[in-house]
Design goal:
640 residues; mainly alpha; 3-stranded mixed beta sheet; globular
């Protein structure tokens, strides 16, 4: 195997971040790689061998307790094809989960036909996915096999619930898969100390195994596993990422504790899980937890008035998901591919945009005939060649770009926390975090300088708005020109922007709006959205940056009385929030719809009042204090 000479000279890479996190946590190569690759393969990844890919990086980051949203990268077409297949399979497995989540034994018999159909559909897709894995490099194959084992687990679960196979089938399947990776049964494994955390797929394996034990009547083992899983939330990792499986583990654990007459313990678990989801601003697992808490409280004959309020909130969330045709009981949605781009596709798009012939672009890099075969999909190129082509086209040439460049994972993860603080207008918190972070960041890194200047510019907007707008806007332009020397409003859609740069472009649009030039602000936002929509991943997935552009565009369109367009973009943003399982920005989006529907004066008052009440209820639920205060000021207006 040959080391990747493309990224050897870079001070901060994914491999070095993984190595830094592993060493900081005192984890050996053998411990981190257990069951999915050899220690030698992991050593190659830490040295940035080019065959490592996004699936591998996300899995290893999960074991290290690091959010996969800390970086952006290029992927191969084959990897994206696997992602699309996983997405289809996940939609079916989510339906299987939701079929059994809130149903009881009396209702299950009526769902046999539906369960059989879902099981057959997922089984067929499992076979297709196994065939796709023939093209996967050995280093990632074991990780894909874990996902596939989980999907087969859902097939068995559906068949068991439809009484189409034996009660111990799921237990036996998941026990076998767990032992294949860890060379031990799960109950024995969880009783030992481990430095390594669990990636999401591994958490899901344990959750399905606990389901298998429950279905087979082995309640004690199910409780042991679910208790261990629920305790994992205290051991680090991104709070929102950890609500994916762990909230469902808490829900199931609370039910089992209640069934063995440990009511106080059940209530404690349920409430703690609800608090955790609210803190993480996540819908993942929240609805079954809220419904379960209400069921417990009714059994204990608690306050009737509180029940009524809770039922209203639950009904409102149920209604909201139904309106946007999103499954609220899905275990989790794959969202992290939204920080990726298909390198081959970008090369083709940019070449045509810049009116370059294939010969001109490939000159000095590879033979024109070889390039032609590459662009037609008949030849693969090593990353070294793709890097040169991308850089010649004015795009980033690094396969991975950390959003903050450092070997310290704690520093890298501050990116999203600071951006969240700014998004929520918590400027004092953001200022404090920046102060702590600044001394730790290597300012030789252009990415770090760009981020720091962007955040500090936003601080200037907060504290020195009057008379500073022209200077602030000029600074934003200078920051972007470091990336693209030809940057202007007309060329915005011709680049692949990072999340920091998209935030800067959004702020430039805001500056125009503040100057009363809203039409230019709208044009700027539309062109930034177009920069995503030219690419397959950008069209099919709304990344965090694009979602934020939708929300802002909805607001600005309302300013110029384009209410239909404003409602359209606000609804796109809300649907994507619900699909991702997040709750960030949901109240703002609902309010945008409400305001524009009211201004349009073609909508019945009860419709926009309903949306307003949804926004208000969710702002209270997720403890958005500033937004609650704002909505309270609007209350009288919407009661008229």
């Amino acid at each position: 195997m040959t080391l990747n000479d493309v990224e050897e000279d870079l001070p901060y890479t994914m491999g070095r971040l993984i190595a830094g996190a592993r060493n900081k946590k005192n984890i050996s190569l053998e411990e981190l790689s257990q069951g999915v690759m050899s220690a030698e393969d992991l050593n190659f990844i830490e040295n940035d061998d080019e065959y490592a890919d996004k699936t591998t990086w996300d899995f290893l980051l999960g074991r290290l307790g690091i959010s996969p949203l800390i970086y952006e990268c290029y992927v191969e077409q084959e990897e994206y094809d696997l992602f699309k297949a996983r997405k289809e399979m996940r939609e079916i497995s989510n339906q299987i989960m939701s079929n059994g989540l809130m149903s009881n034994e009396r209702l299950r018999s009526k769902n046999t036909a539906q369960l059989k159909l879902l099981a057959d559909q997922l089984e067929e897709r499992c076979q297709r996915y196994a065939a796709l894995l023939n093209n996967v490099k050995n280093i990632t194959a074991a990780i894909h096999q874990i996902f596939l084992a989980n999907m087969k687990g859902y097939v068995i679960l559906a068949k068991q619930r439809g009484q189409l196979c034996k009660a111990d089938a799921l237990k036996l399947h998941m026990e076998s898969e767990w032992k294949r990776i860890y060379s031990s049964d799960a109950v024995s494994w969880i009783q030992k100390p481990h430095k390594v955390l669990m990636a999401v797929y591994e958490q899901e394996m344990l959750f399905l195994l606990a389901q298998g034990y429950e279905e087979n009547g082995e309640i004690k083992k199910a409780i042991q596993i679910l208790t261990w899983l629920w305790q994992q939330r205290k051991k680090g990792g991104d709070p929102e990422e950890n609500t994916r499986v762990l909230s469902f583990a808490a829900w199931k654990l609370a039910v089992l504790e209640w069934n063995i007459n440990r009511q106080e313990k059940a209530m404690e678990i349920c409430q703690e899980a609800i608090d955790h989801s609210i803190q993480a601003e996540s819908f993942r697992g929240l609805l079954p937890l809220l419904k379960q808490r209400l069921f417990f409280e009714k059994q204990l004959k608690w306050n009737q008035e509180e029940w009524d309020e809770q039922e209203k909130t639950i009904g409102m969330i149920d209604e909201l998901f139904a309106e946007f045709q999103v499954n609220p009981y899905g275990l989790f949605v794959l969202t992290t591919f939204e920080n990726a781009r298909i390198a081959d596709e970008i090369i083709r798009i940019r070449r045509k945009e810049q009116n370059l012939t294939q010969t001109k672009l490939s000159e000095g890099i590879l033979e024109p005939e070889s390039y032609s075969r590459f662009e037609c999909g008949r030849r693969k190129l090593r990353w070294k060649k793709k890097k040169k082509l991308l850089e010649r086209l004015g795009e980033r040439g690094n396969k991975v770009t950390l959003l903050l460049e450092s070997d310290d994972p704690d520093v890298v993860e501050e990116y999203q926390r600071i951006q969240d603080s700014v998004y929520k207008n918590q400027y004092d918190l953001a200022k404090s975090k920046i102060g702590q972070l600044e001394d730790k960041l290597d300012e030789k890194s252009k990415i770090n300088r760009q981020f720091l200047r962007h955040i500090k510019t936003n601080m200037c907007v907060l504290y020195f708005q009057t008379g500073w707008m022209e200077k602030i806007k000029a600074e934003r332009w200078r920051i972007l020109k470091e990336t693209s020397t030809k940057f202007d409003e007309l060329s915005i859609q011709k680049y692949s922007w990072s999340r920091t740069e998209i935030a800067i472009i959004k702020d430039i649009a805001k500056d125009y709006r503040e100057e009363g030039r809203t039409e230019i602000a709208i044009s700027t936002l539309r062109k930034a959205i177009e920069s995503f929509d030219k690419e397959t991943i950008g069209q099919e997935n709304a990344c965090l940056g694009k979602q934020l552009l939708w929300e802002t565009l909805a607001t600005y369109l309302g300013d110029v009385e384009k209410y239909e367009d404003a409602i359209f973009y606000a609804k796109k943003g809300i649907k994507k929030i619900l699909e991702s399982g997040s709750a960030k920005g949901i109240s703002d989006g609902l309010y945008e719809i409400t305001w524009n529907e009211k201004e349009k004066e073609q909508t019945k008052p009860e419709i926009y009042q309903k949306k307003y009440l949804q926004a208000f209820t969710l702002a209270i639920l997720f403890q958005e204090r500033e937004f609650v205060i704002f909505l309270k000021k609007q209350t009288e207006q919407y009661k008229k």
